[in-house]
Amino acid sequence: MKVMLRRGDSGQLVVYVAKKDLEEEVVQETQGESGKIFTLANGWELAMPPLEEPLKLPKTVEAKRLA
Q1: pTM
Q2: From CA 67, how far away is CA 59, in angstroms rounded?
Q3: DSSP type of residue 34
Q4: Is 15 exposed, middle or buried (0-12, 13-18, 19+ CB in 10 A)?
Q5: What confidence score (pLDDT) does residue 33 get?
Q6: How far apart are the C-alpha atoms of 65 and 2, rounded to whole Å?
Q7: Hey, is 20 helix, strand or coil?
Q8: What is the CATH superfamily name and number for domain 2-66?
Q9: What is the spatial distance between Cα 66 and Cα 44, in angstroms, rounded to a whole number?
């Protein structure tokens, strides 16, 4: 699914999923096999492709929701 990454007002990384009209803060970032895994405030885990450092925001990426 396509998601948009941006920084919130508090400086926290925020993920927006347009298809679900969902906007949640990232509460945890872990390193996965092929990129980062973001855990959102609602409990979702999203596998991200490898992202450049430093991250230039806003950015739209193809993410995969983990079960």
Answers
A1: 0.90
A2: 24
A3: S
A4: buried
A5: 85
A6: 11
A7: coil
A8: NifT/FixU-like (2.40.50.240)
A9: 7
Give, for all 67 residues of the chain, the pLDDT tens digit: 999 999 999 999 999 999 999 999 999 999 988 899 999 999 999 999 998 888 899 999 999 999 7
Beta-carbon contacts of 67 under 8 Å, excluding residues fewer than 6 positions away, are: none
Direct distance between the N- and C-terminal alpha carbons of the chain, in angstroms, rounded to an integer: 14
Residue 44: name the closest of 58, 56, 27, 62 by CA. 27
Beta strands in 1-67, from DSSP E residues, in sequence order: 2-7, 13-17, 22-31, 36-40, 45-47, 59-62, 64-66
Token pair in block for residue 20: 């679900």
| The length of the chain, given as a count of residues | 67
